[in-house]
Amino acid sequence: MTDQSRPPTGDDLLAEIERLRKERNAVILAHYYQKPEIQDLADFVGDSLQLSQMAAETDADVIAFCGVKFMADTAKILSPEKIVVLPDMDAGCSLEDSCPPEKFKAFREAHPDHIALTYINCSTEVKALSDVIVTSSSAETILEQIPEDQPIIFGPDRHLGGYLNRKFNRDMLLWPGVCIVHEAFSETELLKLKAQHPGAPIAAHPECPPAIVDHADYVGSTSGILQFAETFPGDTLIVATEPHIIHQMEKALPEKNFIGAPGADGNCNCNICPYMALNTLEKLYTALRDLTPQIEIEEGLRMKAKQSLDRMLEMASGTIGKGDLGKI
Ligand code: 13P
Ligand code: SF4
User: Fold this and answer.
1) What atom in ligand 2 is closest to the CA of residue 179?
2) Whether residue 74 is found in the same domain as residue 124
3) Containing structural domain, residue 55
């Protein structure tokens, strides 16, 4: 008799994931910050916006979400009839943790004339308290559709919010959350690395603090950084975001050199997201086999959170024009 609780190993593990994927009619979605072996077997690898769009559109019966919990929650909000499994339910996010719904509610109530533009890296409850959700790849397009005289609160990432304020000359009130991964880059070490590779451009995620973003030649989401990696002049790129994204760059452009920006110890390993890293092939296998841990969201809460996510999906594709935001 086989041991049902223990996953197989090596090629058997990959073959069993493949068998379960077909048997369950499952789609495996993975974020660019997942381990290479997970990215390589996923049906789709993408940024937060692309993964939400895939979750909304898929006709699979099961979504195996290899990312963090707010991403799997988003998949369930958009596709409630599907079974959504997350290989490790403890895969959270420091930005979500920084923004408890009751405190966010009080913040909103203290600013009744403001709309809440909220980064997708937050809980379902905070999405339900928000007007429009943004991801880092959709934030600029969406902000440009909001009238300049409309007061806005932006949470939970103060670095992304601050970057948008500076770039678009806005005055959004910022929630004080940060991503612990992007916060760990060191300006001093980055400048030392840059001195060793003087011609190499720097690509940074807007979750980085201004001290890092200010040195960047390109600032954008994970998918934006990947596009920049395909087109930058030269042969070396310094990458200031979670280093597992480099796997995609090395696959697409093996002749080029991609270097992860360093943390304070001069080593980029401290910038590995500890939450994303909780997902493993073994846990993906058991999630597909047992259909657990599964995302469940109370229907009333889901419907409220879906409104702000639907606005994001509409506005990200530019279907709502300037001025329409007055209806929020
Ligand atoms: P994007 O993939 O949308 O750029 O998000 C980055 C991130 O930190 C996800 O947690
Ligand atoms: Fe959250 Fe940062 Fe990890 Fe993304 S990289 S999941 S923002 S802690």
Assistant:
1) 2
2) no
3) 10-91+277-297
**Which residues is 63 bridged to in the sheet?**
27, 84
Would residue 2 count as lying in a domain? Answer: no
Choose one of 29, 32, 48, 118 to mutate for the ligand 1 pocket test, by most ligand atoms within 8 angstroms of C-beta.
48
> Could you give the 3-state DSSP secondary structure of residue 245?
helix
Distance CA 202, CA 200 (A): 7
Question: What is the three-class DSSP state of 131?
Answer: coil
Q: What is the per-residue pLDDT across 132-191, written as a single tens digit (0 to 9) for each?
A: 999 999 999 999 999 999 999 999 999 999 999 999 999 999 999 999 999 999 999 999
* 117 touches 143 (CB < 8 A): yes
Are 102 and 174 in a shared domain? yes
- Specify whether 207 is located in the same domain as 282: no
Residue with CA nearest ligand 2 atom 1 = 93
> Looking at the domain assignment, is residue 3 inside a domain?
no
Helix 48-57 vs helix 69-78: angle between axes, to the nearest 10 degrees?
Answer: 30
- Among 317, 297, 296, 316, smallest CA distance to 305 is for 297
- Joined together, the tokens standing for residue 76 give 């369930």
**Reported pTM:** 0.94
Does residue 269 sit in the same domain as residue 198? Answer: yes
How many domains would you assign to the chain? 3
Residues 224 and 254 in one domain: yes
